[in-house]
Write a structure and sequence with these properties.
CATH architecture of the largest domain: 3-Layer(aba) Sandwich
CATH class of the largest domain: Alpha Beta
Shape: elongated
Number of domains: 4
Oligomer: single chain
Radius of gyration: 28 Å
CATH topology of the largest domain: Rossmann fold
Structural class: alpha/beta
Largest sheet: 6 strands, parallel
CATH superfamily of the largest domain: NagB/RpiA/CoA transferase-like
Distance between the termini: 45 Å
Number of helices: 36
Number of strands: 20
């Protein structure tokens, strides 16, 4: 995290126009996705896109040669640019050769990536963006805020002001009026232009064809009216066949604009043969006499050669990940991005513009995994971000404070116990009579602006259960309790209640004393050395007494134990096998209670209305959503579902510490959804979520109780 990024986040959160625009956008996107994907086999269609992109990227060198061969055969001029400088220089050279003074341009993120418009403008050429969103940000002197919705961060009132300035008219903020003004204004630019510049959504190798998808028709005008057409294409856009193109188009518009099908799809194979035959180099209804295709590398082949990051080339630039991202919903893409936005944008930035430009955007990710589930190419964006953070830490180093904390304390459970005790005495000075810390002095005061903090327990769970560090040889199923840091130091009583419940269900519960932090804080910061050390510590601790099950109350810990340890330690075959032997034993608390307590075991029923918050790592990380609800229903609770029950609460580990205002913005949406249910209690299955939600409700002075599901079950 840099100071400048912190300032940009703060500025965005305090920008009322931006927040108004994002709030309006959220409801539109939500309704649009519900309508557009109703009855659609998203899983099947996304698997097909994944297959197409995997096949194309694995065979990319051959397909690139085939595309060049077929496009050249069709009459196009192919130029391969190794970087932004070469791409810009080539387009400018063509413009000068043709004495071009005016250019119209349709939407192209690749042109944004290389800074083409600015390069041409510095040479004295007038370039007009014709995509209405791009024209808006051009008039505002800004970068696009979204991969496909460049101006979605602008309110209609701001757009009216920009258009009024551009046209010299006083325009009212009426959408249709502004669209008509844009069309009328841009029409003359199409007529006057001597060159049109576009990108391409897909490049088809078997025929050398470009496929361009638009919703406004401007792409058709840009690629047909001017006598010269220049298309910038990234190598990753190349697919093998027309059938592969169809697979992508089936989902592209649904993911980009919540439309069942695109309004316009232009297929361009070479220049206009009629114009060429007639020797036409002026305006022609038949299309341009020249087509130049600039194939741009700019880090793409480096990405292709990297087994860790090649998957990023599957991206079809649809923006679906941004539409479900809680960080984007709070600050938009001009903050959460460099040129490309969001988590996938940070990964692309690392290759196109360097690690330093990627560091700050990567630091904003909450790790909620919503992007992965929304991606039509099934890209594991969160995992790519973890690899990126590890790369940044390896090559650029960690901030010294993080390095000190991880290497000095996090690696060592006993030192963590001592540090927690010191925090307890510090917090005690600021805690209220109910043991809640509502205000901290500067520079920690921002942590308590939006949530109240619980006071750290003076006696960690490790010491509370010191007499229960091994199973009792009772013949009952042996259950090792893995507490995690929040369970060990903040909510040890909840862990004790979970153990009590499991014993009532016939389990022999014990707490392996040598366990430490799961390693998530270090791992999500890119510190693989500390993560590896903790993985070995915990594998050794958990395997010692050969448990039948390992139970967690923190899904983030479970994801580390079950999923992240294996790729982390794969270089050590022996340790890998030991970790693998534990994976199938890991259970969430509600899972294990339902497994151990058959339906015949009665519970004392409640009848109270509650709502349930799905933790990100439980639902999306572990695929567990029905079990906690089944357990609550078995206890007799009536569940009132909140809107977006699986939306992130904003805890996000380091985001809470580095960007507390951002965390608060995400939390606000969650608390509003909870309050709207009318329930008196919100239940969740994640201790960090409990900390965040309880702290937020306390700041609101709300009577709504926040409990971990283990706190409820123990009383039944």
């Amino acid at each position: 995290m840099s100071h400048s990024m912190s300032q940009r986040v703060s500025k965005a959160l305090n920008d009322q126009n931006l927040q108004t625009a994002l709030s309006r956008l959220a409801s539109i996107i939500k309704i649009g996705r519900q309508i557009t994907f109703a009855g659609v086999d998203f899983d099947g269609l996304s698997r097909e896109i994944r297959r197409v992109k995997e096949k194309a990227v694995s065979d990319l060198p051959r397909l690139a040669e085939e595309f060049k061969k077929q496009a050249t055969k069709a009459g196009a001029v192919i130029y391969e640019a190794k970087d932004a400088k070469e791409a810009n220089a080539y387009v400018l050279r063509i413009a000068k050769e043709k004495r071009v003074k005016r250019i119209v341009k349709t939407k192209s993120m690749l042109a944004e990536e290389v800074g083409l418009r600015e390069h041409l403008e510095r040479a004295g050429i007038k370039v007009t963006e014709t995509d209405i969103g791009e024209w808006i940000v051009q008039l505002a002197g800004e970068r696009p805020a979204h991969l496909v919705g460049p101006a979605l961060h602008k309110t209609i009132e701001q757009v009216a002001e920009l258009f009024s300035r551009a046209t010299g008219q006083k325009l009212e903020p009426q959408p249709q009026l502004l669209l008509d003004v844009a069309r009328n204004t841009l029409r003359q630019h199409y007529i006057d232009a001597e060159m049109g510049i576009s990108g391409a959504n897909i490049a088809i190798a078997e025929t050398g064809t470009l496929a361009i998808v638009t919703n406004e028709g401007n792409g058709c005008m840009v690629t047909t009216l001017p006598p010269v057409h220049v298309a910038l294409v990234g190598y990753e856009k190349i697919v093998a066949t027309w059938e592969d193109t169809a697979a992508i188009l089936r989902l592209l518009s649904r993911c980009t604009a919540s439309m069942k099908m695109p309004v316009y799809v232009s297929y361009i194979t070479g220049p206009s043969h009629i114009s060429r035959q007639q020797g036409t180099h002026g305006k022609s209804a038949s299309g341009p006499a020249e087509l130049h295709i600039v194939l741009v590398d700019n880090g793409r082949w480096q990405m292709w050669q990297s087994p860790d990051f090649r998957e990023a080339l599957y991206c079809i630039k649809c923006g679906a990940c941004l539409n479900v991202c809680p960080v984007f919903a709070s600050v938009a893409g001009q903050v959460y991005g460099y040129i490309y936005q969001g988590g996938i944008g940070a990964v692309l930035t690392a290759f196109h513009h360097g690690l330093e430009k990627a560091r700050d955007p990567a630091s904003l990710c909450l790790g909620c995994m919503a992007c992965r589930d929304a991606c039509p190419a099934r890209i594991d964006i969160p995992q790519l971000l973890l690899r990126l953070k590890a790369t940044i830490a390896e090559k650029k180093g960690l901030p010294w404070t993080e390095h000190f904390i991880y290497s000095t304390f996090l690696k060592h459970p006993q030192r963590m116990d001592a540090a927690a005790k010191a925090v307890y005495y510090l917090e005690k000075r600021f805690a209220g009579p109910d043991a809640a810390v509502r205000h901290l002095p500067s520079p920690l005061n921002k942590l308590t602006d939006s949530i109240s903090l619980p006071i750290v327990s003076p006696v960690p769970l490790r010491q509370r259960l010191a007499h229960q560090s091994h199973p009792r040889s009772t013949g009952q199923p042996k259950v090792a309790l893995f507490a995690g840091c929040i369970g060990n130091y903040v909510y040890p009583q909840t862990c004790e209640q979970a153990a009590e419940t499991l014993r009532k269900c016939g389990a022999d519960v014990y707490f392996p004393a040598s366990q430490g932090c799961c390693g998530a804080p270090a791992y999500f910061s890119g510190d693989t050395a500390t993560s590896l050390r903790l993985a070995e510590t915990n594998i050794t601790a958990l395997e010692k007494d050969s448990p039948d099950y390992i139970v967690t109350l923190c899904p983030g810990c479970a994801v580390m134990l079950k999923q992240q340890y294996l790729p982390l330690i794969q270089a050590s075959p022996a340790l890998y096998q030991r970790a693998k032997s534990l994976v199938d034993k890991i259970r969430d608390f509600s899972q294990l209670v339902l497994q151990l307590a058959p339906q015949t075991v009665p519970f004392i029923t409640s009848g109270e209305k509650v709502t349930y918050h799905d933790p990100c790592h439980l639902k999306r990380g572990l695929g567990i959503a029905t079990e906690p609800r089944q357990l609550l229903q078995r206890l007799g609770y009536e569940i009132v579902e909140m809107a977006d029950s699986d939306a992130c609460c904003g805890f996000g580990g380091k985001v809470l510490l580095d960007y507390p205002q951002l965390s608060a913005s995400v939390l606000k949406r969650k608390l509003d959804a909870i309050e709207a249910t009318g329930a008196t209690t919100v239940v969740t299955s994640c201790l960090p979520c409990v900390l965040q939600l309880r702290g937020g409700m306390d700041k609101r002075r709300s009577d709504i109780k926040v409990v971990h599901i283990a706190d409820l079950v123990v009383n039944h």
